[in-house]
Every structure is written in structure tokens, then in C-alpha cells.
Amino acid sequence: MSDKSEKAEAVRLSVFKTYKLFVGGKFPRSESGRVYEVTDAKGKWLANAPQSSRKDARDAVSAARKAFAGWSGATAYNRGQILYRVAEMLEGRREQFVREVGEAEGLSKSKAAAVVDAAIDRWVWYAGWTDKIAQVVGGANPVAGPYFNLSSPEPTGVVAVVAPQESSFLGLVSVVAPVIATGNTAVVVTSERAPLPALSLGEVLATSDLPGGVVNILSGRTSEVAPTLAAHMDVNALDLAGTVDDAALAKELEIAAADNLKRVLRPQAVDWAAEPGTDRMTAFLETKTVWHPAGAGAASGSAY
Amino acid sequence: MTQTKKNQQPQPAAQPKPGSAFAYAPAPESRSVVDIAPSYGLFIDGEFSDAADGRVFKTVSPSSEEVLSEVAQAGEADVDRAVRAARKAFASWSALPGSERAKYLFRIARIVQERSRELAVLESLDNGKPIRETRDADLPLVAAHFFYYAGWADKLAHAGFGPAPRPLGVAGQVIPWNFPLLMLAWKIAPALATGNTVVLKPAETTPLSALFFADICRQAGLPKGVVNILPGYGDAGAALVAHEGVDKVAFTGSTAVGKQIARTVAGGSKKLTLELGGKGANIVFDDAPIDQAVEGIVNGIFFNQGQVCCAGSRLLVQESVADEVLDALKRRLSTLRVGDPLDKNTDIGAINSAEQLARITALAEAGEAEGAERWSPACELPSAGYWFAPTLFTGVTQAHRVAREEIFGPVLSVLTFRTPAEAVEKANNTPYGLSAGIWTEKGSRILSVANQLRAGVVWANTFNKFDPTSPFGGYKESGFGREGGRHGLEAYLDV
């Protein structure tokens, strides 16, 4: 009996997953109906990923814009709890991501595990930043007059992110988490060659209490989707991390971004395994300074 | 002035009689969500044990005088053992990467959230405070505090204390009974985040939530010796503070004991932070939103039965609106429900101990003897337990003891003023400097008065607001050092 069932198990055909985009908290296929073949590092077929169109990009921007008021208006504490929840959910699906990252990046199981662990810890790192960045980059300004004067950081709005091409998962998490930690919403273009871990991350985000539209994930041809986002007039900022090996595209995108003066974070060589600083957060923050009269006699007269 | 219209004051609306159609039916929280053991030990090096000399003490529910549990009473030998355990644990705990320490603290924060209903009931039972407060204030703040400092553990280089600030070593921490678990969180979270290990002594009347916290440390897998809990009396606190193996002393409690501790550590290298008493002024200007101000006044002095170091225990009200404010205040006080802390409708619970009740009673009697006018709404107090009706003193002068001394109970002293300068003068006329409140619709007045107040926390058009990101602490004899926010890290760093 047991022999039979073991045999039956050995021949069981696995169920493939249809990878889909993540837009507005839902999982649509590309409106264009197009897919492209994704292979592992050795060229073996892994899946057909959606090939996003310009329309998909515009839909994603409008979903991100819609989510911005709620997400930027949430307390920093609440955002921290949700980012931490992402780490909790990822930890539970660690095996899945170790496999997907290993296949996508041609890593051994132990190396892929190290990458996934670092990605989980990166969510924890940024979860802790949500309610601390204001005290690090903001503060009271001692103006020469009887005025209260306080500068506070605020999120800039919708940020389009071209995710790193090589580091398909840790790199992706490292560019998305800092954008949303401070209250921005994001439209992310995944690694073109290795989009699957990113698309699976959408499934994690969807079950982490993250409001729909805060992160929108598009797979496809970087050169097709990124220019639409760079030129989109309802996008406030642009992270060019994934164009580090394509200086011509980076320049083209930065030029397009100038039309509405998007804040642009230029591509640079980054060791994604190293502890990040605050740069990827501050790149997408505005500083708001509030003045208010503090009346006369502002100094305290009595020693006691 | 306040006396002139006295006869025209409307009678406060009486509370509906019990049994009337408009009375509140009891809405008791279930006691069964918490399982209190008949006895507890000291928590040293990850294990519960008896005191070296075998002494124990009883902890009672202040609302019923029922004995809740029998707890081991730490003495000098136990303090020594706990400090050694903390010292031993320090080497590996401080050597952990900050990101790993962070994850322990995140675990603790999450477990506190998960067990918050149980802990809220426990805290209400052991302390006497209303379940509404433990459920809606204490426990959410405890979890948030751990969550907040967890995030700092791997970000200390960004906190403004140099590129690699070092922990101090073993922190000896002594906390009061008014917010037992919250004060524990304020002490332990920043200490662990920065890499210190801890020996904490909870107050003798409220040891239970700290002992439950020991169990949370177990669930979180916290390494042995990183947190040690020593229930006991003042002698254990004194031994801890004086112990040569302690590098950092943090104390929250009375100003008198704070001064003793300052003398004890004088001449040594122990870093000291103190969060002591207060006599907060709540200043109501004539352009204040009166209804909102009345709510703030009530919250300021009757939150936690007034057993709050930052309580707004002196109401300074501008003469022109004094009658209006007092009338509204008395009406509001008449609707406060005093009684069973586990009833979800209760506004005011029990006083924490017979000793504290005696102190409040004595000071209130002194207020009357010195000529202030005493008023309380009609309210029936339970027969068992320690209770004190919400009380107002009017006609109070700055010389009266009820205006000068911290009562630490539900007793509000009302003074009047005519000009903002006079308000500031009176507000600052105290050796304390912890908190103050300002009620006015005029923004520039808020800021100018706030600038002139010698107080560590100033609330404008609100009162008793707390947040882990916001530094809290006093000027003058209310102590020194800040807890909360980026500033709160400094107390536990070698800077």
C-alpha cells in the first residue's frame, strides 16, 4: 500500500503558478495580453511573465496616486507595523523565495537563503525607520526672532522605481522599502530578466495589511515601461537604480523626468548586502518648514 | 472673584441612581483572561527563584484588598546575584549586531500586543486603575515603546551620538507603581536597544506585571540574564542603586528618594537619570475653548486617579472665566463614575495602597485646615479597598500645601490669575518642572507661554499625551534626563 502511494507521489505533476502584475492591490494580467519567457540562469524555462504595456504603467501610477493620501496620512507607527508585518509574512514563505531567488539569480541554496534573510531583515530595518527619520532629518530651527520654526520631512508623492536588474529580490526590496517607509507610494519596474521574485513579493505585500496601491509591481521590458513612468506628469520622483549598466537609458529617463521636475535618484553601484544608510529615504522626502509667531518675551526670565 | 457668584452656581446634575433606567449597567471585563499563580519568585538569569533569605510579601488588589499572590522579596544577596547575572550576559548581548537585538525587541513588542488583554486585566487588578485606561493607554503604549526602541537598536550610528556609541553596561532600574508595565517599558526598551543589560525592581505594591513580563522574555527567547526582575521594597532598590556592579541608574518615583539616589551615586561613575515628582500647572486663558478645556482639566488630574507625576494638579484659570470653568468642571465631575476598576464604564478606580490613601487624605485635610474650600461630587465609594472621591479645592493660594506639594491623588487645586505674566509666574512658582498645560485659541500665546514655562513637557489644548517618539522628563526637582524619542537613547549610551 505504502509503496503504491509513494509511487503515485513521485509521478505527481506540480501545479504551475501564473505570475501576474500587482496593481492597486489586485493581480491583473497585462492589459496588453502579452507575456515573455523567463528562464533560470542556465536557460531553463521558468514561467511566462506579463509584459507590461504603457497603459499598465499609467494604471499603476493612478493606483499609486489614489493610495497616497491614505498611506502618507497614516501614522509613522502604523506604517512601521505594516512594514514589520511584511517581514513576518516573508519569513513564513522563506523557502519559496529561496527557491525563486536561487533559480532567478543562479545561486546555491545557501547563498539564496542568505539573500532572502537579508531581504527580510531589510524590511525590519526600514520598519524601524518610519517613526525615526523625522527626528534625524528634521528639527527646530533657532531663527533670530520670536518665532516657532520647525522643519519636518514629508513624502514627495508617487515614486517610480526602476529596480536593480541583477539583484532581483534583495535589490528590489532595498529600493522599494525606503520609498514607502516614509509615506510615498511606488510603481516598481522589476528586473527585466528575473522578474519572478518581485512578482511573488506582491503576494506577500497583499497579505501584510499594506493598503492596495502603495506598491505596484510591473514586469516587462525596462526600455518600454520606464520611459512612460519617467515622463508621467503625475509621478513625483524617479529611482534609476536598475539603469546602472545603461547610461544612455538613464540619461534619457532623467531628461524625460525634467518635464515636471521629478526628483531623480541617479544610478550608482550599490552593494545590496551592506547596511543601507538613509539616502534612499531622504532622496524622496520634501522638507516642510512651519513658522509661527511666539509672541514677545520668549525667553524665560526666572531662574526658578 | 470666584466666590462672588457662588450662590448662583447651578447644582451639579446628580448621577442617575443605581437601578434607575438611566444608570449604567455593570460592564465587567472578565477576570478569567489572566491566570495569576499563588506565588512568584525573583527572575534572575532566566529563572525564577526564591529570595536568598526566603522572605516573601503579599500583593493585594487595591479595589478589594484581596490577596492576589505571594511574591519573593529581594534582599541584598539577591541584588548581588542579579547584577552578576546581568554582568555576565552583558558581554554577549552588547556584542550582538544591533539588527539582532532589534529583532528580540520586536518579538517582545509583538508578544505584548498579543497578550495585551491579559496584561491589561492583570494591571487593573494589581494597580487598581480602570480597565479602560490599561486597555486603551497603558498596554498600547507599552507595545509601541518596545516597537519604537527596537527600531533604534541597529540605527544608533544615526542617532547623533557619534558613529558607534557604546552601551554603559548593567542598568539598575527602579520603577513606581502608578504605571507598572509602562514604566518598565520606558526603562527596559531603550536599555536593551542600546546593548545594556538590566536589573529592574518593580514597586512593592505592583510586582505582577513585571513578573509576567519575565514570561514574555522567555517566550521571546531573550538570552538569560539580559533582563532580571527583582520584586521588593525600598531596601532592595537602595541596594541595587548602590551596587558597585551597576553602571547606570534609572529611577522613576518621588523627589525625596531621587535626591537620596543622587547622593548615593555621587563621586562615582554611575550615569544617572531621574524622573521624579511634579506639580503641573494647567493654565486656562479666557479665550480657551471651555468645554475642551474642561475635558483636559479632568483628564489632567483624574487620569489614573491623579497618581501621575505629570498630572495637571494646579488649575490656573483666568479670573474672567473662572466661574464659567468651575461650573462646567463641577458638572463634569458629577458624571465621573468611581468604582470597580474592571468595569469598562469606570472612570476612576482605586487608590493604589492604604499608605497612598493616607497621604492623600492627610494633604486634603491640610488644604481644608489652611482655609481652601473643598468640594467633591456626590459619589458612593465601595466599602472595601482604597478609595478617594474626586476633589476640588478653590480659594487656594500659592502658600497652601495643596498648591505646593505633590498630592499624587485625585485632588485639584484651583488658583486664578489676571495676566499671562502672572500665569507664568505662578506656574513656575514650584520646585518641580515636569509638565504644564496651556488652553487658548491663540497660537502665539501658546508658544510664548510655553517658552517661558520651566517644564519638560508642555501640552497645548490637550493634556497627558504620551508617545514613544516624544521625549518626556523634567526640569528642576522633577529630575533630569529624558525618556522617549531619540533623546531617550542618551541615558543608556556612553556619551
TrEMBL record, chain A:
Domain named Aldehyde dehydrogenase: residues: 31-264
The UniProt record lists the keyword Oxidoreductase: yes
Keyword annotations from UniProtKB, A to Z = Oxidoreductase
- GO MF entry, a single one: oxidoreductase activity
Q: Which Pfam families match?
A: Aldedh
Return the protein name.
Answer: Aldehyde dehydrogenase family protein
Organism expressing this protein natively? Actinacidiphila glaucinigra
Automatic annotation (TrEMBL), chain B:
- Pfam family, any one: Aldedh
Which parts pass through the membrane? Answer: none
Q: Which GO terms describe its molecular function?
A: oxidoreductase activity, acting on the aldehyde or oxo group of donors, NAD or NADP as acceptor
Cross-referenced PANTHER family, in alphabetical order? ALDEHYDE DEHYDROGENASE-RELATED
> Where do the segments described as Disordered lie?
1-24
Highest taxon above the source species: Bacteria
Tell me which residues make up the Aldehyde dehydrogenase domain: 52-494
Taxonomic lineage of this organism?
Answer: Bacteria, Bacillati, Actinomycetota, Actinomycetes, Kitasatosporales
Please state which protein family the record places this protein in: Belongs to the aldehyde dehydrogenase family.
For bias type Low complexity, the affected ranges are 1-18
What is the name of this protein?
Aldehyde dehydrogenase (Acceptor)
Q: Which UniProt keywords apply?
A: Oxidoreductase
**Sorted alphabetically, which Gene3D superfamilies does this protein's record hold?**
Aldehyde Dehydrogenase, Chain A, domain 1, Aldehyde Dehydrogenase, Chain A, domain 2
